[in-house]
Amino acid sequence: MIPYILYSALILSACLVFYKLLLQKETFFHLNRYVLLCCMLLAFVLPLIPVPQQLSFRNAPTTTAVFLPEIPVHKNSTTQVKQESIQETTVEPTKQFINVEVALQWLIYLYWFGVIVFGVNFLMQAVILITRAYSGSVIQDGKFRIVEITGDKAPCSFANNIFINPEKYEWETYNQILLHEKIHIEQKHTIDLLLAEIVLIFQWFNPFAWQWRKALEINLEFLTDDQMLKQDTIERESYQFSLLKVAAPQFPLSLTTNYNQSLLKKRIIMMNSKKSNVNTTWKYFFLLPLMVLFACLFNQPAAQSQTLNSTEKSAEKAAKKSNVRNSIRTEGNWLATIKGNEVYLQLKSDEKDNSSSTFQLSEFKDLQRDKQGTFTLTREAGTMTFTGKFEGDKGMGTYKFTADKNYQAAMLKEGIKVTEDDDLMVFFMINIKHSYVQMVKQSGYKNPDKDHLIPLVALDVNETYIASIKQAIPDIDLENLVPFKSLGIDKAYIEEIRKSGYKEVTPGNIIALKSQGIDGKYIADVRSAAKANNTGENTSNSDDDVLAFKALNIDKAFINSLKQVGYDNVSNSDLIAMKSLNVTAEYIRDFQKAGFTNIKPDDLIALKSQNITPALIQQYKDLGFNNLDMNDVVGAQATGATPTFIKSMRGKGHDFKNLEKYIELKSVLHN
């Protein structure tokens, strides 16, 4: 917040200096008005606009500041840490650092206190003006409201209200005052003053902001005076003399346009000055390079701004997942977050090499918070040394992994070749212990390699789990244990599938069944429902059909619904086809209600594939085809020999008693 406010103050100050030196004496009052307003707004907007990285003067200093969460810390940071640790016994530097922080905090409090005070003052002025505008005597003059006031106060205007004491002025002066204030209202000068007051609320500490508000007010008076002198009824000398009579020492509220005595001399001088030449407008074009200069000096580079956003997103994602890649460098940078008893640690060695994992807080030795230092994490594969600092629950710094040569030799004896430090780093992150390799070999897997061990340990495939699975499937391969564990397949599930009557209980089939969400109850229900009532033959003996049944959602309820309409003995292939085409019990029942009973399952499938309904069959019957064969109906629909077509052919003299003849005719005409 403080840098942004200071940047805005600096831009506003520089623009004021530019205005005072080059533009203030020019008589382009309209142009000066827009320059003053635009510069005032740009002072707050410009610092927020990112600039191309190649144009920014902040490239060098922001490289480390922006990219620390994701880009490696420079190696010389280790040296800096050591130097800081040597100076820890010195008291004065620490005190000075704390005092600066406290002073900065108090400055922030002071700034916001000023904002509140000036904000309240702004609101009070607005309330007072609105109260005066609607509590006194008012004369409505078109869209203007002339509010009569008392006392020795200068006339002023706010919004569409003109505040004036009519008893103080003669008629000519009174009319000139009204005309002057109406110009203020017509050109909406109140908006300029309100914006300037809002700027002062946030820039109350900046003397240039107060001068800016004064310059804006003066220019508005210059502009109004210029418009007054263009009136045919106004004489220059008479108008200037009226200003002398109207000017009063009392200062009205700052939100109003008014006759300020301190501005009177400048206004009269400007009215009598020579008009600026159009050729002097070149001065205004210098504003553009001035703004570009400030943007390049203070604004965040666009590329780094985007990188910061992506860095924050990647840090959030890293905190949510535990992912260790097979290639992790032994040196790089770390970024960590402590949550309860766990530490979410992200390691990064270059732009593409990024991994993360979760550790128990108790595993770290000598970890201290809010203090630069070194702490370690030791496992069988080696030791990782972290250098950096935790501020609260978040920390960052550099790391270095040192492999344990004894561990490497022990693994080699077990037949596991981890000769590279990067491989040992992965074993360290996964925490593959020597005893785990021995357990795997004792479980019957004599030749495990590192590609087997990494996912096994990552999924916590322990000795108990392996033993229970081998009891159900004794010859299961080591590779199948990974999908088994990831899918949650246990001994109880395998036994449940076997008890349901499923014969081919192989690892591949078990994985397929589990991935489809098929359990023993589903298999048993489907098979019991599919038994033929008449023959006792089980029509669902094929294990392969179980997966197809599940994929199509063929369950006990669907099979029983077919039984209720008379289809007791439907083969698996017909069940699959009927379900896939949505041949439901309701569809069959519609045919039965129309008098079409005992339609074979394969005919039902053919009818549904052509979207043939009982109503369509009835249309054929109405044409005189009483002994219809379902195959003829399907053929007629498929070839386009519809009832409409038959009627048109009969109208042309083609009167056949057999539907098949119309099918042949349609085929000939189509060709």
Total E-strand runs: 12
Which spans of ≥5 residues are poorly predicted at pLDDT below 50? Answer: 59-98, 303-326, 532-541
Distance between the termini: 82 Å
Question: What's the arrangement of strands in the largest beta sheet?
Answer: 8-7-6-12-11-10-9
Total count of helical runs of at least 4 residues = 30
Main sheet, how many strands, which sense, barrel? 7 strands, antiparallel
Q: Bin the strand percentage.
A: 5-15%
Helix proportion: 55-70%
Question: How would you characterize the overall build of this protein?
Answer:
There is one protein chain. The chain is α+β, with helices and mostly antiparallel strands. Helix content is 56%, strand content 10%. It contains 30 helices and twelve strands. The model is unreliable at 59-98, 303-326 and 532-541 (pLDDT under 50).
Can you lay out the helices and strands and say which pair or pack?
Elements: H1 2-23, H2 29-45, H3 59-67, H4 77-86, H5 92-135, E1 138-141, E2 144-148, E3 156-158, E4 161-164, H6 171-186, H7 189-202, H8 207-229, H9 236-246, E5 257-258, H10 261-271, H11 287-298, H12 302-320, E6 331-339, E7 342-348, E8 354-360, E9 364-365, E10 373-379, E11 382-391, E12 394-403, H13 405-413, H14 421-430, H15 434-442, H16 450-458, H17 463-472, H18 478-487, H19 491-499, H20 507-515, H21 520-529, H22 544-551, H23 556-564, H24 572-580, H25 585-593, H26 601-609, H27 614-622, H28 630-639, H29 643-651, H30 659-670
Parallel strand pairs: 2-4
Antiparallel strand pairs: 1-2, 3-4, 3-5, 6-7, 6-12, 7-8, 9-10, 10-11, 11-12
Helix pairs in contact: 1-2, 1-8, 1-11, 2-8, 3-12, 5-7, 6-8, 7-8, 8-10, 9-10, 18-20, 21-23, 28-30
